[in-house]
Design a protein that fits this description.
Largest sheet: 5 strands, antiparallel
Low-confidence stretches: 641-645
Mean pLDDT: 78
Strand order of the largest sheet: 8-7-11-10-9
Shape: flat
Distance between the termini: 69 Å
Length: 662
């Protein structure tokens, strides 16, 4: 039965049915509606920024057309034709000021910046020298110191000295009677009138005359003109007063707009904040991409407005829920009281009070009928329960006895099955290994024989290929060694020779010359602790082979040097006396996954050239064939760890020989 008040009870389920629309479905519908509204708002803002950029570009085109028209009007005016050479400079200066131009000059066929000799109007980029030719002081006005900001395109330059101008040219007759050009234009670097005019058109809240009538927080955007990737004119004021002149666009924006020529419509980090942005490339009169026009609106006010809206909706939902939920619970309580009384009765019965009854309950007739039937069933249950207890006691005793018998039989069967599976697996591996080894021996003998024939045939010329022949001999000996290991693993009894009574202490002493070079080369120290005089039932060569293999593995596990401890002491296992040999190192140890497979045939962690994976299986076969055991345990750790217990330990138990002194 569900616990009191649990949501899986009838009461809980009825409450879920009543509250589900309010507490679950309503938030889901509100979430879906809010998400669609947010997505639609993002689309509207993106479309607005694109529209703002279009207005800015149209104004720039309008300014270019007006400049071209003004220059053409001056070139064709009667005042120009009537002006004498002496009065021409004064006339040009007055015309420049009336037209609102930054420069107006006459020149011959050699035009600055490679400008075409045909009448034209558009954008052009001039070097500082060319700007000085157009008008003294223009280069100083155009110079923009560079400011590095987060995410901007890196550069080694300290300033942008070029000038971006709205250029217009027209053909004229010079005072000397030769053909020439009238050049006029407006410098856009630091041109606040130009950029503020676009801002006033696109964002009315930026116009001081309208700022009091329009909510500036959500209607104040940024217009920026770039020369290359450098801001040369902008309405962005990060500090509130100073414009962000000299800051640079990000590398990603520059690569897409200036490099590829594609417009950018996305959210971008601009100087000190995130903006919903749109960038468009600007081309000069020669068709080259020379800059960008930018329009953007800050994302923070809209994010704040969204948060306020979400908070208001959440507060309204909590208010409605706070009024509805108590009302629903109050209505449900009148239905739940009879059910709660029956539930309490059942709980008492479950606790062991078989005499508990609900009795008459107020409420609907259907619920009262259920209560009466429940009391009748509880009375019948109490009578049957007494009868079943007697039968259950006898049955439990029989089941417990049979269960113990089955458990013992099952454990014995599992142990026998594991032994049979292991024996069958090792037998199969041994049979296959022996077959493979013998099959390798036949072609290997043919190779060895033919190698001798080659030496005899070549005679004296064999010295010319002595290194190659020696390499073949070495590989043949290596294959012979691998075949011997395979056969020793498959049929260890064929490699047994010598007495089966060995002094392990003497075998350990005889081990030193065999491993001296291995220890000296690796910087590993071997510490011996001999505490036994018993003889063991094992061939001395087999014992040394086992110890050499274990020492070699320990040395390879400690390439930076370390210590190996070889301890010999008396011991017993499964009621048999014998000798225990413990070989331990202070190396990095083995992971549990590797330790679990350490004695599996052909398993190795040294790669293809490191070993065959038969060393430990052969050692295990040699030890267990004499009735002994070989186990390993390891504690992984860092090579710099100085805590005790780290490293790998192999424990060998070998039974005592029949002629060993006790």
């Amino acid at each position: 039965m569900a616990r009191r008040g649990g949501w899986t009870s009838v009461r809980g389920r009825l409450l879920i049915i009543a509250l589900l629309p309010m507490l679950v479905l309503t938030p889901i519908l509100l979430g879906i509606t809010m998400q669609r509204w947010l997505n639609r708002t993002d689309q509207i803002l993106a479309a607005r920024v694109t529209s703002d950029l279009t207005v800015g570009r149209q104004y720039l085109d309008h300014l270019t057309a007006n400049t071209a028209r003004d220059v053409a009007a001056i070139a064709r005016s009667a005042a120009y034709r009537d002006a004498s050479p002496a009065k021409m400079p004064a006339f040009l200066e007055e015309a420049r000021m009336n037209a609102g131009l930054d420069f107006l000059m006459l020149t011959g066929t050699n035009l600055p910046g490679g400008i075409s000799s045909q009448p034209q109007g558009g954008l052009a980029v001039f070097t500082p020298t060319e700007l000085e030719q157009l008008s003294p002081g223009l280069a100083a006005r155009a110079r923009v110191p560079l400011i590095t900001t987060e995410g901007s395109n890196p550069t080694d330059a300290t300033s942008e000295d070029r000038g971006l101008v709205v250029l217009a040219t027209d053909q004229v007759i010079l005072p000397k009677g030769v053909n020439g050009r009238l050049i006029g234009g407006i410098l856009l670097n630091r041109n606040e009138d130009f950029i503020d005019r676009i801002s006033a058109l696109v964002y009315p809240a930026s116009d001081p005359a309208l700022s009091g009538q329009i909510g500036a927080e959500l209607d104040l955007g940024v217009i920026t003109l770039f020369l290359g990737d450098t801001r040369i004119s902008t309405t962005l004021r990060p500090t509130g007063t100073e414009r962000a002149i000299g800051t640079r666009a990000s590398a990603a924006v520059s690569a897409q707009v200036l490099g590829v020529g594609q417009s950018w419509h996305d959210t971008a980090f601009v100087v000190n904040g995130w903006y919903i942005s749109a960038y468009e490339a600007l081309t000069d009169v020669k068709g080259n991409r020379v800059g960008m026009l930018y329009a953007g609106i800050p994302k923070a006010p809209y994010t704040k407005a969204r948060q306020v809206t979400l908070v208001m909706i959440g507060a309204a939902f909590l208010l409605v829920g706070g009024l509805f939920v108590p009302l629903a619970l109050s209505w449900a309580r009148g239905i739940f009281r009879p059910l709660a009384a029956m539930r309490d009765t059942i709980a008492l019965v479950e606790a062991g009070d078989m005499g508990a009854r609900t009795g008459p309950v107020p409420g609907a007739a259907e619920i009262a009928m259920v209560s009466t039937h429940l009391d009748a069933l509880l009375a019948l249950l109490s009578a049957r329960e007494q009868e079943l207890r007697g039968l259950n006691a006898d049955l439990n005793a029989r089941v417990e006895e049979r269960t113990k018998d089955l458990t013992r039989a099952n454990q014995a069967l599992q142990a026998t099955s594991r032994q049979l599976i292991l024996a069958e697996k090792l037998a199969t591996i041994g049979e296959v290994t022996a077959g493979v080894a013998h099959e390798i021996n036949n072609p290997l003998a043919v190779i060895s024989g033919n190698l001798e024939v080659i030496r005899m045939v070549l005679a004296e010329r064999a010295s010319d290929i002595t290194p190659e022949l020696r390499l073949i001999d070495e590989q043949i000996r290596r294959i012979n060694g691998l075949v011997s290991q395979l056969l020793q693993f498959a049929r260890p009894e064929e490699f047994t020779d010598g007495p089966l009574s060995t002094d392990p202490a003497a075998a350990i002493q005889g081990l030193k010359p065999l491993i001296r070079h291995l220890l000296a080369r690796s910087g590993v120290v071997l510490v011996e602790e001999i505490h036994s005089t018993r003889l063991i039932r094992m061939n001395p060569h087999e014992l040394q082979q086992v110890l050499i293999n274990l020492v070699s593995n320990a040395v390879q596990a400690m390439p930076q040097g370390g210590q190996i401890t070889l301890r010999l002491e008396d011991g017993a296992e499964n009621g048999r006396d014998g000798v225990v040999i413990v070989l331990s190192d202070n190396g990095p140890g083995m992971d549990p996954a590797i330790l679990a497979r350490a004695f599996d045939p052909f398993f190795t962690t040294r790669g293809r050239e490191g070993g065959t994976g038969l060393g430990l299986p052969i050692c295990l076969n040699l030890v267990t064939r004499q009735g002994g055991s070989l186990t390993a345990d390891s504690t992984p750790g860092s090579p710099t760890d100085s805590l005790p217990g780290r490293g790998t330990r192999f424990r060998i138990f070998l039974p005592m020989a029949d002629d060993s002194p006790d």
